[in-house]
Fold this sequence. Notes:
Elements: E1 5-13, E2 24-41, E3 45-49, E4 54-57, H1 63-74, E5 81-88, H2 98-113, H3 120-135, H4 141-148, E6 151-154, H5 161-167, E7 170-173, E8 176-178, E9 184-190, H6 197-210, H7 212-235, H8 238-254, H9 260-271, E10 276-280, E11 287-291, H10 296-305, E12 309-315
Parallel strand pairs: 3-5
Antiparallel strand pairs: 1-2, 2-5, 2-6, 3-4, 6-8, 7-8, 9-11, 9-12, 10-11
Helix pairs in contact: 1-2, 1-3, 2-3, 2-4, 3-4, 6-7, 7-8, 9-10
Bound molecules: (3R)-3-hydroxy-3-methyl-5-(phosphonooxy)pentanoic acid.
(3R)-3-hydroxy-3-methyl-5-(phosphonooxy)pentanoic acid is lined by residues 15-16, 18-19, 95, 97, 135, 138-139, 141-142, 197, 201, 281-282, 286.
Amino acid sequence: MSAVGSHGKIILFGEHAVVYDHPALAAGIPDALRMVSLAPTSGPVRMRILPWDLECSDSSGDLLGSGLRRLKEVVPGGGRGCSVVLKSGIPPAAGLGSSAAIAVAMVRALCQVREIATSNLQVREMAHEMEKIFHGRPSGLDDTVATFGGVCLFRRSGWDRHERERKSYCMITPQTLQVPYRKQSFLVGNSGIEHSTRHMVAGISRRRKANHKKVDALFEVIDESLTEGLAAMNEGDNSRLGKAMLNNHGALRSLGVSCGELDEMVDVAMAAGASGAKLTGAGGGGSVVAEASGCEEEVIEAWRSHGYSGWRVELTEENRTL
Ligand code: PMV
């Protein structure tokens, strides 16, 4: 990973539930953003992201502009700004953590021109402040994975000592355990429908106010899926992993955050031989993730024939920043 860059993420289990302090498991997508050029300025912060055709500065009146203004406040050292060109390997607003990837890459860029030495922990904290502007009440999962990569087991209120000892995972932030993993690949399928995380998270909050028992029971199903899926990943049991993903998708569907296209993508993947699939991210559009070892091409082709794009994400040891 370049000094200025960041990971995207696939949430394997636990989206939405994670906002309410349930655990989530997410994997980093390498090279979500990579720096093409970086130049200091006398003050303004400007950003261009090449394949997205996106240009923004701290004087823009939109959310990104507000995020960049927050960035200038949270990165110490004042004064200098920066002009950054980034290249992205993921689509924007597709449930793959693009906003967190922007936040982390821009924090790293501004720290570099202001000559501030920062740890990944500090980068994550500053990026989280930008994520608050984008999402209102982010769990912190996206900015953590965007910073560190790898496979992260995340819980908002943190992990207590006993849980940590039992799991014997490496603790990289008080909220994050980095999980050792075998070489593993997933397919990501993009519905092409942009979604708003803020809107989807607000929808769950409304539904939980109206019927917290029902929503909390579905969060329990998501917890069970995560436990099952994590055990399956540890054992290299892809068929069990796929079943746990489907179970998680069913709960997200009952929570009202799926949509016709995402359900279709899950069904199409299953019909083409996947062992499991689920929406990933906030839902309402965006992407799905599938476990489809041995039939990757068939699933990608089946998605393509239904008008969706798909590609393979490989989790390897190089996939992390640490
Ligand atoms: O769709 P994304 O990439 O913004 O992911 C959102 C994940 C949620 O769990 C729905 C929200 C959060 O803050 O964790």
